[in-house]
Amino acid sequence: MLAMALSAMVMGGMGRRAKAQSPEIAMREFSSSQIKKGVRAIGFGGDGATWGNYGLLWREANGTLADYGETQFTNGNGFHFEAGGGTSPQTWHRLTFYFITMAQQGNDIHLSAQSPGLGSGPTAITGNGSDLGIFEKISMPVWKGFSIGVLISHETSQFDATADAAPGNYVHYVSAWRPSGGLGLAWQPTNRLLFGSREMVNNDMEYRTDATGTTHGEVRSSEFRLGMAAMPWKGAWLDMGGTSLIRSNALAQTHSHFYHPNLGFEQELPNYHLSLRLGVDETSPTSGLTLRYKRLKLDAAYVNNLGRGRTGTLFGTHSNSILATFTVDYGGRHAGE
Fold first, then answer.
1. Among 38, 90, 138, 253, which residue's CB has the most CB atoms within a 10 Å radius?
2. Has residue 337 been placed in a domain?
3. Residue among 207, 154, 183 nearest 32 (CA)
């Protein structure tokens, strides 16, 4: 049944293209969207329903972490983010808390946008953008292999730009936070099987200001992920999932609904100090690795055309992204334990 559902997602995704969004919202595909999945999950297909599931956070207790991400387009556009946070020790019934703060920047970004103050059609603009976020997760095992997790997020973004042909014409985008969050459910009936689902809802009030004044409208997205992972032999995982995303933007007067697959493979080497992985995250090929030494762990991932199925060619036609997380386990677990 899961295979049939994923096949339907793939076929459905072929017939739809994501419509361009406002730049300050689209920037999030290169930062917060990746933090919510985690670098390990990104490396082998970005399946937030399985190993990127909020419900499994309790397994990562007693950790402090630092994140970094860099996305560079071949046309010169670039974005980078930094983040820091940690997970608490396990508390009542293994209940675990996670907290992280993030900041993203993008300078001298070239793109085309449409706004009444810029003219009647798409206009070439250059601008700077930023994105700030605070994310909290709560997770615990509940019953016979089932785990549940909750995400609470607070994120604001802005983008300031001027027209390339007429620098006096400007446009300013800013998003104001509205209640947003997510829910994850994972089930691992055996050591060799994992099933999961994850739903996330983001709400923002977007304000656009140009020479004609200020207008505003809601930007909403609802994302649902479904997936499964299986261990064909010791140290290996095969992962298969799918994503459904519904978006609406009142100012741009757009509405889109698309489906994309998540596929991946991971192999942990016998010494437990190195894991290798690769996959396809929606429309983007991925690869990654994990290095472990005692209480230290480094996760890294590469993504070709990160978020292409969601942002289209708004910022450029091709990009390369590197994402990394460095973790210190202050609980004292060592690699292989």
1. 38
2. no
3. 154
Chain-centroid distance, C-alpha 194 = 21
Measured distance between the N- and C-terminal CA atoms of the chain, rounded to whole angstroms:
35
Please give the Cα distance from 266 to 42 (Å, whole number): 11
List the beta strands (DSSP E) in the chain. Answer: 63-73, 78-87, 96-113, 123-143, 146-163, 170-190, 193-210, 213-230, 236-249, 254-268, 274-281, 284-293, 296-304, 319-329
Among the listed residues 246, 281, 257, the one whose alpha carbon sits nearest the alpha carbon of residue 51: 281
Whichever domain contains 212, its CATH number is 2.40.160.60
Q: Are 138 and 96 in contact (CB under 8 A)?
A: yes
Residue matched to tokens 């649902």? 224
- Is 336 part of any domain? no
- Angle value at C-alpha 63, between 59 and 69, nearest 5 degrees: 100
pLDDT tens per residue across span 286-305 = 999 999 999 999 999 999 99
Task: State the total domains in the chain.
Answer: 1
| Total-model pTM | 0.90
Residue 334 lies in a domain: no
Burial of 48 (0-12, 13-18, 19+ CB in 10 A): buried
Domain membership of residue 167 (yes or no) is yes
pLDDT digits (tens, 9 = 90+) for 111-126: 999 899 888 889 999 9
Alpha-carbon distance of 17 to 165, in angstroms, equals 29
* CB of 198 closer than 8 Å to CB of 225: yes
- Its domain, for residue 51, covers 2-329
